[in-house]
Amino acid sequence: MPETLPSVAFLGAGSMGGAILRGLVASGLAGDAALFATNRSAAKAAELSGLDGVTSIALEEEPGGNTRAASGARVVFIGVKPAMVPDLLREIAPALRDDAIVVSLAAGVTLETFRTILGDDVSVLRSMPNTPALVGKGVTGLVRGAATSDDDVALVRRLFETVGIVIEVPEDRIDALSAISGSGPAYVYLLVELFTRVAVEHGFSEADARAMTEGTFIGASALLDATGEDPAELRRRVTSPKGTTERAIAVLQGAALDGVFREAADAAIARAKELAQGA
């Protein structure tokens, strides 16, 4: 594997594609390789134009910009909205290099869609990153296509590892991964919202309530990360016998949170399957 990465294009470099692009630039792995990014508007393109080594293309100024970017890249990220993916693939298919690796960032678009449009021999991977990639703490699920080699997977892993960790899964598990890590940040933010509201109800100002709640979630996550301990063990260390935490934990466990989270994950998975069918 070379020390630096090959040329990369982000077609539809929105928040997620832009995060990965920024992580790649910050890592220094790209070296002198060409990096391309496309966005519909000049304003969005301008946000990426200052990144080292990046050619940022506004499609409103250069309608053929996706084709130019794709033709110059070894790895091509597809970051447009799911409904726009088929048209984009048809647009760029004639311009793809023979050794191109196409990576989908689009939720609900199957590998079969890519195979049908691009052909059986094009290396394709389906990915599901999450928003903490914006701060280098992302979790990305990765699915390889039939024509994708181990070297292709390793190369794409290196790209995603610039913004977090990577888990390779079979395609029939990508919806479940999305329900856990893809949607998961929203579940955490909801818990922060609810605990902040409780703190306000107990007399704290909004600012103090946010500070103590957000600081607790951030600190607990950092401790989990730093120690590598099982979360159940860290919970036990906080939960003194017959103490206040034990009493609160009993209430939470009595509410059958495991069933609630299972039901939430099942709902997300069901919706992902609906989206894949165009519903």
UniProtKB/TrEMBL annotation:
Catalytic activity annotation: L-proline + NAD(+) = (S)-1-pyrroline-5-carboxylate + NADH + 2 H(+); L-proline + NADP(+) = (S)-1-pyrroline-5-carboxylate + NADPH + 2 H(+)
EC number: 1.5.1.2
Domain Pyrroline-5-carboxylate reductase dimerisation: 171-275
Places the protein is found: Cytoplasm
Gene3D superfamilies from the UniProt entry: NAD(P)-binding Rossmann-like Domain (3.40.50.720), ProC C-terminal domain-like (1.10.3730.10)
Enzyme superclass (EC): oxidoreductase
Pathway as given in its UniProt record: Amino-acid biosynthesis; L-proline biosynthesis; L-proline from L-glutamate 5-semialdehyde: step 1/1
Keyword annotations from UniProtKB, A to Z: Amino-acid biosynthesis, Cytoplasm, NADP, Oxidoreductase, Proline biosynthesis
InterPro entries in the record: 6-PGluconate_DH-like_C_sf (IPR008927), NAD(P)-bd_dom_sf (IPR036291), P5C_Rdtase_cat_N (IPR028939), P5CR-like_CS (IPR053790), P5CR_dimer (IPR029036), Pyrroline-COOH_reductase (IPR000304)
Residue ranges of domain Pyrroline-5-carboxylate reductase catalytic N-terminal in the record: 8-108
Family: Belongs to the pyrroline-5-carboxylate reductase family.
NCBIfam families membership: proC
Function: Catalyzes the reduction of 1-pyrroline-5-carboxylate (PCA) to L-proline.
Protein name (record): Pyrroline-5-carboxylate reductase
Organism ancestry: Bacteria, Bacillati, Actinomycetota, Actinomycetes, Micrococcales
Name of encoding gene: proC
